[in-house]
Specification:
Layout: H1 2-29, H2 34-49, H3 57-64, H4 66-87, H5 98-101, H6 112-138, H7 143-173, H8 176-202, H9 205-220, H10 226-246, H11 251-259, H12 263-306, H13 308-315
């Protein structure tokens, strides 16, 4: 019986290790990094104003949000492992889960964020086991679903706090993220302004301006001939075209010149690590509530049904 129990423990450890390994591989192939997130956030307004116009919603999401969708699958695998641990309790072997993370450090260059993430995942992997036992004793309704959803939700809350801390430390120690954010933001704003100027030149706004001016001219000079009115309108149109042509300049340079001494930009540099890290944490918390917790509940329900016999046999030898 002891040999059977030991083999079951080995199976649990290997199963969780496989789930975590898949999660790390998916996370690696997503190519999602703090550099990508920083640039993406600085271009977010431009994407929704300019890029979405030429693409369908599906193409737009797949083109610009693909790394984030892949990231979701990675966290789902981690959540599945945590849900398994909350249902099928792992003994002392749980303390060796840290060994799973070490080889993946070479893929992620042992970055600060990777270290914080692994530390958080190890802590919650150990923590979710007694947490699952507590919920299993206390919950009465929808127990099989709620054990996993509640336990994993609490575990992910702790994990995402460690992600917040790792992001904050990384942003604080490396100023290149700030420079990248500001350069991309400046370029993005310049692109938006240039696009709006071009729309004015090519659209109906310019004609509206001419019509209003000509209406004023006709009211002030009612005795002119139509030929004279046409000549005035022609000169007015040339004048407006000339004005727009002289304004067709490097908008990125204009934006940079106007915002480099801004108080908002100074505040942005000061609070950059905290607001970027906080933004990441808010998104993760939102996904935890609407996606990861419910999915973990489904995994929990499945593991209760599939693993019921094994758990009863080990609890009653």
């Amino acid at each position: 019986m002891e040999n059977k129990f030991f083999n079951l423990e080995i199976f649990k450890f290997v199963f969780v290790s496989v789930l975590y390994s898949i999660g790390f591989f998916i996370l690696y192939f997503s190519k999602l990094s703090l550099s990508y997130i920083t640039v993406f956030q600085s271009r977010l307004v431009e994407l929704f104003i300019l890029k979405i116009q030429n693409l369908s919603i599906t193409d737009f999401l797949l083109t610009y949000f693909e790394p984030f969708f892949i990231f979701l699958f990675a966290i789902i695998f981690f959540s599945c492992g945590l849900a398994f641990l909350s249902v099928n309790k792992l003994g002392d072997l749980r303390y060796f889960l840290i060994l799973i993370f070490l080889p993946f450090g070479f893929l992620f260059n042992f970055s600060i964020l990777f270290i914080f993430f692994c530390l958080g995942l190890y802590i919650v992997s150990v923590y979710v086991i007694p947490l699952g036992e507590t919920y299993e004793r206390e919950l009465k309704k929808w127990k099989h679903f709620r054990v996993g959803s509640h336990a994993v939700s609490k575990a992910l809350f702790i994990l995402f706090l460690l992600v917040f801390a790792g992001s904050f430390v990384t942003y604080s120690l490396d100023n290149s993220y700030q420079k990248s954010f500001m350069n991309t933001t400046t370029s993005s704003l310049g692109n938006i302004i240039s696009s709006e100027v071009n729309n004015i030149q090519e659209g109906d706004v310019k004609d509206d301006i001419i019509q209003k001016r000509m209406k004023e001219v006709r009211e002030q000079y009612p005795n002119l001939t139509e030929e004279q009115y046409s000549e005035i309108e022609k000169k007015l149109r040339n004048s407006i075209n000339s004005t727009f042509s002289t304004e067709d300049i490097n908008m990125s340079g204009v934006v940079e010149a106007n915002i480099e001494n801004s108080l908002i930009v100074e505040s942005l540099y000061t609070w950059f690590p905290i607001f970027m890290s906080f933004g990441i944490w808010v998104v993760l918390e939102f996904l935890r509530s609407i996606l990861f917790a419910p999915i973990s509940g489904i995994f929990s329900y499945i593991f209760f049904k599939v693993g019921k016999f094994n758990r009863e046999s080990t609890e009653n030898p």
